[in-house]
Amino acid sequence: MGRTPSTGWPTRIAGVLLVLGAAAALGATAVWTVGRDEQGVVLRFGKVARIVPSGIHLTLPWPAETLLRVSTSEVRQVS
Prior knowledge:
25% helix, 3-stranded antiparallel beta sheet, 5 strands
């Protein structure tokens, strides 16, 4: 019986690096900072999920959730 040739360590390392890179990219889109004069609006698939105060917050990775920052100290007028 013949042995099945292995793919070798370079292919395995490349696969591991690809998976780690994808996980890091998704993790980077899940951490948000909202400033002192802002509030955050968390959108889940485009609909408002919750309002968050200033500080560091975690959300689901993009594209499931995104965060919009809204300035609460700015006064806007319509003329």
